């Protein structure tokens, strides 16, 4: 890892729901931030700077919400900045916050990300159909379905693999009190009985639309309070979406980003050396795809890991013990929730979905047309 | 303790407190029952109307407790009475219905806001109902009360009703000391509408203009990067890989290969029907795909590797504004053998 040591000392999450009608946007982000501060046993006054992330402004129609939310996040008289890298923004926000610690600029940074999808409709906001378009693009599911189909063709994965992930993550969600989708008794038959929305993606293989916020308190080594999760490696990558020969199934930017994080954290065999991973899987088939992209399985072999149960909560490399994006998806916060859950695991504070003895955890986010990536590795032990 | 509403008080916003008259359908079987008509006599129907209505209406002496309640209503306040064990009954009674003991003489102001405990939706209101539009009869526990009051909730839509809904009274301007001094309860303000509109004047820019001018002539224009040799479609001015300016134009055929696709079951204004296929189509000679509709073939017969050709709309239907893709309806199978992927 480059720069000064950085640790996560506070994690705060709101309950994720279809509609948080009981809170304003300011109330929503304050709920998460206050819980993160309480976890770190700090107050607003102890924070040096605030970094805020969320997905496109068109989701809520609040333009530049960082300006409106500065006071709500206790930023008066302090630096505040806003991060936006589409769906990966939650992860990027944590990394920008961490860089302020690693660079020695601040000692305690509050990182917050949110989305209040119920204030409008994300599919509408993502399908603005500008004139003069030479290509027909059809929402997020319509965009990613062809990449999933291509993965299935290349790998020869059987059709039920996506179903297994949909069931596994929703069962995990039953152990997470913050999770949005809670479907007792979910099984393969239930998932397979739901309609294809964007074939080969079924309804229950799709993430929900959620309201919610997540917050972290990051600290320099000398400012650590409470139980730290040490940041062992951080990286962001992007790639040009219109590049000829771009591999949308196994994006180069994702591979490069993972390699960078593993190098910093001293990981050479992610499957063996990482205890738990929180990976951005908004459509169930992205678990086997990212298993390969992140080096947990060889090319074409990711689905076998899923099928074997290795990624289940009681498997040897649990993925998305929290229930993941498939169970809670306040888009702007979804990446930060992955990073936060990774930190909770190595702090031993993940409650019912704790992976016993987790010492090293990966947090991952991707966004746009699978062209933005953000990842970090956190650990129980100081690097 | 939702079940502890005094039965009489909870049953009707008029009945127990002060009968507004006319809401009780049948006080004794004298009005509605045409009984005794002999069956099988089609000629003479002996039914006649007979109305019993005490001129000016009956009075109801309120007594001290309900009288205080109605007097406070006239002043736009809601009070309950405290029982010996400290609970507050709203509407108040002279006695504790649970024990039969007298209530204390202590009145407590409650509300005005309260919480809906349960409700019944009235989709087709009758003339006697408090509102002419659909509404809910609801059990409302006012803040500070231990029992619930029945009243109308003007929620607009049954979907707005739920246990826990917060409501407040809408008072009539002219009040007389009657339960109907509250016209109805209305939900608290939890949401406003904030119209946001951004209006743009867009030009396609040099590269896309050049491409769309080609489409207007029936030509698909791409370009070739002089540095990496990749052929881009649509035409563009720089290479996203190399960053250098592209100067070589290249006309591409309107045939290509479906590399992958989605079968969309959600409607889209740009697709003629559901399901529709949106496909990545790699035009012959191009190195980047475009996303387009595939038509003239059942959705489930589309394959990866399928050979397709653009289906152009008839010339006379071409858009008067030339800068559009609408001249191409979709891509359809050519019937050639599938390409290797
Ligand atoms: Zn080039």
Automatic annotation (TrEMBL), chain A:
One of its GO terms (molecular function) is acyltransferase activity, transferring groups other than amino-acyl groups. InterPro entries: Thiolase (IPR002155), Thiolase-like (IPR016039), Thiolase_C_2 (IPR055140). SUPFAM superfamilies: Thiolase-like (SSF53901). It holds the Pfam family Thiolase_C_1. The gene is atoB. Residues 246-371 form the Thiolase C-terminal domain. Transmembrane segments: none annotated. Gene3D superfamilies: 3.40.47.10. This is Acetyl-CoA acetyltransferase.
């Amino acid at each position: 890892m480059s720069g000064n040591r950085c640790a996560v000392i506070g994690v705060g999450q709101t309950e994720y729901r279809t509609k948080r009608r009981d809170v304003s946007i300011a109330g929503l982000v304050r709920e998460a931030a206050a819980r993160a501060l309480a976890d770190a046993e700090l107050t607003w006054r102890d924070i040096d700077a605030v970094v805020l992330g969320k997905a496109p402004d068109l989701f809520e129609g609040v333009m530049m919400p960082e300006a409106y939310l500065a006071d709500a996040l206790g930023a008066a008289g302090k630096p505040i900045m806003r991060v936006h890298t589409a769906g990966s923004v939650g992860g990027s926000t944590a990394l920008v916050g961490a860089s302020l610690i690693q660079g020695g600029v601040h000692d305690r940074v509050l990182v917050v990300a949110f989305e209040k999808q119920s204030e409008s409709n994300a599919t509408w906001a993502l399908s603005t159909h500008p004139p003069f378009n030479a290509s027909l693009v059809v929402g997020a599911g319509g965009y990613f379905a062809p990449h999933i189909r291509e993965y299935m063709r290349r790998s020869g994965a059987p059709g039920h693999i996506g179903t297994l992930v949909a069931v596994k993550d929703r069962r995990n969600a039953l152990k997470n009190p913050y999770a949005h989708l809670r479907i007792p008794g979910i099984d393969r038959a239930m998932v397979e009985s739901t309609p294809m929305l964007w074939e080969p993606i079924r309804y229950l293989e799709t993430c929900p639309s959620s309201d919610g916020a997540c917050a972290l308190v990051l600290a320099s080594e000398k400012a650590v309070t409470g139980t730290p999760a040490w940041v062992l490696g951080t990286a962001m990558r992007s790639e040009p979406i219109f590049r000829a020969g771009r591999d949308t199934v196994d994006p180069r930017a994702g591979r490069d980003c993972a390699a960078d994080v593993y190098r910093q954290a001293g990981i050479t065999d992610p499957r063996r050396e990482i205890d738990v991973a929180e990976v951005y899987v908004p459509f169930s088939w992205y678990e086997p795809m990212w298993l390969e992209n992140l080096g947990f399985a060889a090319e074409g072999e990711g689905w076998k890991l899923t099928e074997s149960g290795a990624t289940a909560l009681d498997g040897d490399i649990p993925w998305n013990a929290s229930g993941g994006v498939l169970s809670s998806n306040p888009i702007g916060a979804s990446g930060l929730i992955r990073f936060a859950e990774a930190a909770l695991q190595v702090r031993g504070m993940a409650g019912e979905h704790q992976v016993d003895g987790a010492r090293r955890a990966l947090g991952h986010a991707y966004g746009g047309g699978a062209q933005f990536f953000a990842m970090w590795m956190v650990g129980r032990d100081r690097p | 303790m939702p079940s502890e509403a005094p039965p009489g008080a909870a049953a009707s916003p008029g009945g127990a407190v002060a009968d507004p008259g006319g809401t009780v359908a049948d006080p004794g079987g004298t009005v509605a029952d045409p009984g005794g008509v002999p069956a099988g006599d089609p000629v003479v129907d002996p039914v006649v109307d007979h109305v019993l209505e005490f001129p000016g209406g009956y009075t109801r002496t309120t007594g001290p407790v309900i009288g205080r309640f109605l007097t406070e209503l006239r002043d736009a306040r809601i009070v309950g009475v405290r029982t010996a064990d400290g609970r507050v009954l709203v509407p108040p009674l002279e006695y504790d219905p649970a024990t039969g003991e007298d209530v204390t003489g202590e009145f407590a102001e409650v509300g005005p806001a309260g919480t809906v405990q349960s409700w019944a939706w009235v989709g087709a209101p009758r003339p006697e109902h408090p509102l002419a539009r659909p509404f809910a009869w609801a059990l409302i526990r006012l803040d500070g009360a231990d029992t619930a009051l029945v009243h109308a909730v003007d929620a607009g839509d049954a979907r707005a009703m739920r246990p826990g809904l917060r409501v407040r009274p809408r008072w009539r301007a002219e009040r007389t000391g009657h339960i109907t001094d509250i016209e109805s309860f209305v939900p608290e303000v939890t949401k406003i509408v904030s119209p946001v509109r951004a209006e743009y004047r867009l030009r396609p820019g040099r590269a896309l203009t050049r491409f769309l001018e080609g489409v207007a002539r029936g030509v698909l224009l791409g370009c070739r990067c002089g540095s990496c040799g990749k052929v881009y479609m649509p035409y563009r001015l720089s290479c996203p890989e190399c960053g250098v300016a592209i100067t070589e134009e290249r006309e591409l055929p309107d045939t290509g290969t479906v590399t992958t696709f989605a079968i969309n079951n959600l409607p889209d204004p740009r697709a003629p029907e559901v399901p529709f296929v949106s496909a990545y189509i790699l035009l012959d000679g191009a190195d980047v795909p475009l996303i387009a509709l595939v038509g003239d073939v059942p959705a489930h017969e589309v394959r990866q590797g399928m050979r397709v050709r653009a289906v152009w709309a008839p010339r006379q239907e071409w858009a008067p504004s030339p800068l559009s893709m609408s001249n191409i309806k979709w891509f359809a199978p050519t019937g050639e053998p599938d390409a290797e992927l």
